[in-house]
TrEMBL record:
This is unspecific monooxygenase. Belongs to the cytochrome P450 family. It is found in: Endoplasmic reticulum membrane; Microsome membrane. Its EC number is 1.14.14.1. Gene3D superfamilies: Cytochrome P450 (1.10.630.10). Heme binds at residue 437. InterPro entries: Cyt_P450, Cyt_P450_CS, Cyt_P450_E_grp-I, Cyt_P450_sf, Insect_CytP450_Detox. One of its GO terms (cellular component) is endoplasmic reticulum membrane. It comes from Euphydryas editha. It is an enzyme of class 1 (oxidoreductase). Residues 1-22 form the signal peptide. Keywords: Endoplasmic reticulum, Heme, Iron, Membrane, Metal-binding, Microsome, Monooxygenase, Oxidoreductase, Signal. It holds the Pfam family p450.
Length: 490
């Protein structure tokens, strides 16, 4: 109830504010659209869909101004500008513009950190976790989880009633195993203690949306009331990480998981950036925040990609048949002893995944906050410090200028001979540039392993998929209520 009252107060203040700011973008020669946050609060759709509406309504414009809370926001469409924001002028656009409480310990991770020096040092130290060599050494973990997932589905006769939840169970369990390893006594890795936590932190809800809305409307009030996005899970999650680190310090055997990396960082002592001299202590709390980032960034997005892929495969039986043939061939050649190299052989599955993320990008919009006034090159448009830049990924991916017949599910767009035709910076499922998703490789292996094992054992009943709208999420694009029906192939 407190959230609702606070938001109503902020909305009233915002209406007064916007009365005096109604010409903010028009004064710069840019068309101004209605306030995005108001539409989001009162609608039952994702913010990515709202951005797409604006993108389409102002189809002749290269820039559309609006407000995100009390912050001026500029929706950009031209790939030249997108390249500058995400890569070319990263120094001026490194900030995501997401408000977090400084006391929210779990927000102190590479996904949310806005302090450039702090983000740069932590990202550098975490990068070795996501090299091809490291993921190859971790593959046994993900492959075991994928096998266990098939057993889990076999033992749940009602799985077709909530297929998104089943996939979420898999992605949560595989992320947990990649962080903490697999205990030798674990019968099935799907029995994860983190499932409830990850669902609550990432699924759209009144409380979650209210917090993000209030943070955008009034960061001062958000921090004054000491609101935290993830405060509810601090004791639980940090306690688990501390306990695991303590127990593993005396182990000699390497498990090739994230905890091994944490222990190595703590052995090395204070983390230091030689270029700037900036230092961070590798405390249990700091490392727990990075582990938490894996759950926030990896569980929901990977489950969403798997979910949309299976929904589209059910609707496109010719594509499904071709994919079955590829999976069966690879599994038969390796005698169902799947290796990292075998996953690489699943090229058509890669194409299906890429097209899924084109049609349904897991993060439907990306935002950056300008940290120093500059000019966007395409239209020579000035951007002021604190202006938010919105890159409407969902709208870009459905723009027929970049993807002809955009509503058609067509994996051939990503065939080796066609990939080079895709306009650079028009396809952004993982972002681009220096803040591109650090876990891209891990996510692909995780999703491919899960889909490969599932489609080796099951096929899909034919079913049309034509969504009218998606879940009302502030970040993601998903349709958690849609279902598909699995049919055993045994």
């Amino acid at each position: 109830m407190l959230f609702v009252v606070l938001i109503l107060i902020c909305l009233l203040a915002a209406l007064i504010y916007f009365k005096y700011q109604s010409e903010y973008w028009k004064n710069r020669g840019i068309v101004q659209a209605p306030v995005v946050l108001f539409k989001f609060i009162w609608s039952k759709r994702s913010i990515a869909e709202i951005y797409k509406d604006i993108y389409d309504d102002y189809h002749k414009e290269s820039y559309v101004g609006t407000f995100l809370g009390l912050k001026p926001a500029l929706i950009i469409k031209n790939v030249q500008d997108i390249q500058v924001v995400m890569q070319g002028n990263f120094e001026n656009f490194h900030n995501r513009g997401i408000i977090t409480n400084p006391n929210d310990l779990l927000s102190d991770n590479v996904l949310f950190i806005e302090d450039y020096r702090r983000w740069k040092l932590l990202r550098h130290k975490l990068s070795p976790v996501f090299t091809s060599m490291k993921i190859k050494s971790m593959f046994y973990i993900m492959e075991r989880c994928a096998r266990d997932f098939v057993k889990f589905v076999n033992n749940k006769p009602d799985v077709s009633e909530n297929t998104f939840n089943a996939l979420y169970t898999y992605t949560t369990a595989s992320i947990a195993a990649s962080i903490f390893g697999i205990d030798t006594h674990t019968e099935n890795t799907m029995n994860s203690p983190f499932l409830k936590m990850t669902r609550e932190t990432t699924e759209p809800s009144l409380a979650n949306n209210a917090k993000f809305s209030l943070a955008s409307l009034s960061p001062t009030l958000f921090n004054f009331f000491n609101l935290k996005q993830f405060g509810k899970y601090e004791d639980f999650f940090i306690g688990i990480v501390k306990n695991v680190l303590k127990n593993r310090r005396n182990e000699e055997q390497k498990r090739n998981d994230f905890v091994d990396t944490c222990l190595e960082l703590q052995k090395q002592g204070t983390m230091r950036d030689p270029a700037t001299g900036y230092e961070i202590e590798a405390s249990d709390e700091i490392l727990a925040a990075q582990a938490f980032f894996f759950f926030v960034a990896g569980t929901d997005t990977s489950a969403t990609v798997m979910h949309f892929a299976l929904l589209e495969l059910a609707a496109n039986q010719d594509i499904l048949k071709r994919l079955h043939n590829e999976i069966d061939k690879v599994f038969e050649e390796c005698n169902e002893q799947l290796t990292y190299e075998d996953i690489d052989k699943l090229e058509y599955l890669d194409m299906v995944m890429s097209e899924t993320m084109r049609k349904y990008p897991p993060i439907g919009a990306i935002q950056r906050c300008c940290t120093k006034s500059t000019v966007l090159p395409f239209g020579q448009v000035p951007v002021h410090t604190r202006d938010v830049i919105v890159i409407p990924v969902f709208a870009l991916h459905r723009d027929e200028r970049y993807f002809p017949n955009p509503n058609k599910f067509d994996p051939e767009r990503f065939a080796p001979e066609n990939v080079s035709k895709i306009v650079k910076f028009s396809y952004l499922p993982f972002g681009e540039g220096n803040r591109m998703c650090i876990g891209t490789r891990l996510a692909r292996v995780q999703v491919k392993s899960g889909l490969a094992w599932l489609l080796r054992r099951f096929t899909l009943k034919e079913h049309k998929y034509e969504p009218e709208s998606f879940d009302p999420s502030f970040f993601s694009l998903k349709d958690s209520k849609a279902n598909f029906e699995l049919i055993s192939r045994n």
